[in-house]
Amino acid sequence: MKTVSHWINGSLSTDKAAQVGEIFNPATGKISGTVNFADLATVNKAVQVASSAFDSWRHSSLTKRTQVLFAFRELVNKNKEKIAELITAEHGKVLSDAQGEVTRGLEVVEFACGIPHLLKGGFSEEVSTGVDVYSIRQPLGPVAIISPFNFPAMVPMWFFPIAIACGNTVIIKPSEKDPSAIMFIANLLKEAGLPDGVFNVVHGDKVAVDALLTHPGIKSISFVGSTSIAKYVYENGTKAGKRVQALGGAKNHMIVLPDADLELAADAAINAGFGSAGERCMAISAIIAVEPIADKLIEKIKIRALKIKTGDGTTNADMGPLVTKVHRDKVASYINAGEKDGATVVVDGRNVEMAGDGFWLGPTLFDHVKPDMSIYLEEIFGPVLSVIRVKTYDEALKLVNDHQYGNGTAIFTNDGGAARRFQNEVEVGMVGINVPIPVPMAYFSFGGWKNSLFGDSHAHGTEGVHFFTRGKVVTSRWLDPSHGGINLGFPQNT
Ligand code: NAD
């Protein structure tokens, strides 16, 4: 049984923990280790280390920072499989999904390697006689990143490569459910030449989060998790005077118009609904079928869903278990509620037969879901797809826009005009056109609207650089003796 401890000042903390959490292998249901929870003293120590490291890291040259990031990129690439194995062992997702997550994280590292270009300021010459104005962006100081269980490598990588590239120091509080991947990454950063204290990890729960939210040494909070905690983090972080970006939950809709390619739409629904067992903030969980295609579409999704092989993520399964027993039972309780509320269970994931005590649930497909049912209103975060039937595009659009979440959405159609209208009218932060999971590339920014994001700054891309720096504008006048200024004793040009 392993013990996962904090990473402070470039090494593992040996402090004894007053409280620990259990880590499970979701495929076996067995405990594989424990994770130390940070108390106030541990968080204070991490902040103090990050503050001291900031004094020199902020003055490191852009060349030095990019050298570290390029070396880190190579190391992550080389160790992609090892990181994926750690993710699968604690999260449960299949290895190919885990590797995909590392690849998406690497794209942000590659983006951050371009920091010399990204930090270039503006310059206006001669705004008044002899006066120039220019803007620069400077780091904030120690910044905190609080991440969820569902992408234990990728979500931290949305933030820390850019934060570090901008000259900040970092404290990460990963999910206590799958804390090992980020520890491996911490070692790689050290191997890449990152000075000790620039990147730190404290584990734990609310105690550690609250300590980070209120510590005056922490300058910003980047949070990703469920909406209720995102709101809490946003309100308390901003109250303590910090800048906060808090990404919350989701209920992503996929609209299928009557002219869509139904084979493509059914494939997309399967991948986006059941990939990573639906534990993705960009998973599709509601399909809005615009009649008359619902019967045909549901049949195609059903055939595919019945073929999905649920199993241990280290085998050749399509879909792994859910992350914990509590979460598995919560998702199953939503299926019970949907059935009780009158939705039709087309494919029932509760029937999946698996050996052992893993946290299993197969894919579930609901038809005839109504907008007032809890399976539609709330985020389930599991392998459950709900189909709602409507008669028109306008009805479909209204459903998406009336929903409390606005993270991602997709439309499937062959009509360019309809797609263009949708991208303009839909109240959601990330939109796919015949693309079910429209996760922006690292050089664009990731974030939703409404209850899917608190704050005004999305993750990575130029918004990420903006978030991790403060702007400064310098207005400067240098007196030039050759142009009739004060004679400072320099030789005159004649
Ligand atoms: P969660 O909200 O339970 O936990 C997120 C983080 O908050 C963890 O580090 C956790 O330890 C901490 N936390 C939990 N309870 C807390 C409390 N009471 N006070 C302070 N901190 C607390 O989320 P999760 O279950 O780990 O992740 C799943 C959620 O994350 C889903 O809602 C999903 O939609 C969301 N998510 C959103 C995005 C996005 O980009 N919008 C991306 C990934 C996941």
Automatic annotation (TrEMBL):
Source domain of life is Bacteria
Biological process terms in GO annotation:
L-valine catabolic process; thymine catabolic process
Q: Which residues form a coiled coil?
A: none
Name of a matching Pfam family? Aldedh
Named from the GO MF annotations, one term is:
methylmalonate-semialdehyde dehydrogenase (acylating, NAD) activity
| Keyword line | NAD, Oxidoreductase
Its EC number(s): 1.2.1.27
Residues in domain Aldehyde dehydrogenase?
Answer: 20-474
What is this protein's record name? Answer: methylmalonate-semialdehyde dehydrogenase (CoA acylating)
Give the taxonomic lineage as stored in the record: Bacteria, Bacillati, Actinomycetota, Actinomycetes, Candidatus Nanopelagicales
